[in-house]
Design goal:
The complex is a heterodimer.
Chain A: E1 3-5, E2 10-14, E3 19-21, E4 24-26, E5 32-39, E6 45-52, E7 60-61, E8 64-69, E9 74-79, E10 88-96, E11 105-106, E12 110-115
Parallel strand pairs in A: 2-12
Antiparallel strand pairs in A: 1-4, 3-9, 5-6, 5-10, 7-8, 8-9, 10-11, 10-12
Chain B: E1 4-7, E2 10-13, E3 19-25, E4 31-38, E5 42-51, E6 54-57, E7 65-70, E8 73-78, E9 87-97, E10 100-106, E11 110-114
Parallel strand pairs in B: 2-11
Antiparallel strand pairs in B: 1-3, 3-8, 4-5, 4-9, 5-6, 7-8, 9-10, 9-11
Classes of the chains: A mainly beta, B mainly beta.
Chain lengths: 116, 115
């Protein structure tokens, strides 16, 4: 069975520092995609970054980067130089291909609070 | 500008009434989705559509049905709404190629209250 687990329910950081959040996943597929999304206070869900399982290099987009540890089935999100507007709920998600299904499996989210 | 739209944004209905939630996307994405989000439960997949008239049940399809007659438009229908269908509903779409769908783009959500 596929599963995505985010054990950190909330993290508080000071502005301009780095925050790291964890995500572990379970899958039987050899090929899969991992995603991070952000949900703002207004409810908007925004795609941030993707890691393809066959790529060894960690994905980076702007001040978001990933720590992909395939042997540990782990995909951490790192936000550097945090800003107040980075305060949000961050969801990890996975997609694997099975019988044509293309649904995302989401974790339960980590709430990040950035203080000035 | 890639965009997923949802209408209405807020809706209040009485139990037993029919509900129609509309979703549109301007990216020509093949695959579209309906989710609901409830506190503590995260995002739950209701239905997935692979293209026009090609729909499949998600994890919690009971009480819902969908319609997709145009690629850019995907509707969620609640026939005789129930109070436990009070939730925030999100539509999403994703680019699909070679059998793989990539990141999903979400609409702003519809907050539905069933009294």
């Amino acid at each position: 069975a596929q599963k995505v687990t985010q054990t950190q329910t909330s993290i508080s950081v000071m502005e301009k520092t780095t925050v790291t959040m964890d995500c572990v996943y379970e899958t039987q597929d050899s090929s899969y995609f991992l995603f991070w999304y952000k949900q703002t206070a207004s409810g908007e869900i925004v795609f941030l970054i993707r890691q393809d399982s066959y790529k060894k290099e960690n994905a980076t987009v702007g001040h978001y980067s990933l720590n992909f540890q395939k042997p540990k089935s782990s995909i951490g999100l790192i936000i550097t130089a945090t800003q107040i507007e980075d305060s949000a709920v961050y969801f990890c998600a996975m997609r694997e291909a099975y019988q044509g299904g293309r649904a995302l499996i989401f974790g339960t989210g980590t709430t990040v609070s950035v203080s000035p | 500008d890639m965009k997923v739209t949802q209408m209405p944004r807020y809706l209040i209905k009485r139990m037993g009434e029919n509900v129609l939630l509309e979703c549109g996307q301007d990216m020509s994405h093949e695959t579209m989705y309906w989710y609901r989000q409830d506190p503590g439960l995260g995002l739950q997949l209701i239905y997935i559509s692979y293209d026009v008239d090609s729909n499949s049940e998600g994890d919690i399809p009971k009480g819902y049905r969908v319609s997709r007659k145009k690629r850019e438009h995907f509707s969620l229908i609640l026939d005789s709404a129930k109070t436990n269908q009070t939730s925030v509903y999100f539509c999403a779409s994703s680019f699909t190629t070679g059998g793989h769908s990539y990141e999903q783009y979400f609409g702003p959500g519809t907050r539905l209250t069933v009294l």
